[in-house]
Amino acid sequence: MGPHDLVKEENAVRALVVKTTSIFCGLLFAATACARVTASDKTGPVVNTAEGPVTGLVRNGVYEFRGIPYAAPPVGKWR
């Protein structure tokens, strides 16, 4: 194995690393873009409560309102 073979092998490894990194970055970008669209979609039903409006969603004909705090967290003797 001569020096030219080592250079060819290093170039092949470098190309594989660049290709893998590019694919990973592309997938990460696509996932981030999809998450932003989902998070910014506020077209669901809105219910006005004493604490302010709550936006929900409709899934299979069922109205869902998620992330509503119902009580203080259990701390101290309540834990």
3D structure, described in words:
This protein is α+β, with helices and mostly antiparallel strands. The protein has one domain (about 5-79). It is about 50% helix and about 20% strand. The chain contains one helix and four strands, in the order αββββ. It has one helix at about 5-40, and strands at about 45-50, 50-55, 55-60, 60-65. The chain has a two-stranded antiparallel ribbon with strand order 1-2. Strand 3 and strand 4 (about 60-65) form a beta hairpin. The longest helix has about 40 residues, at about 5-40.
Short description:
This protein is α+β, with helices and mostly antiparallel strands. It has one helix spanning 3-40; strands at residues 46-49, 52-55, 57-59, 62-64.
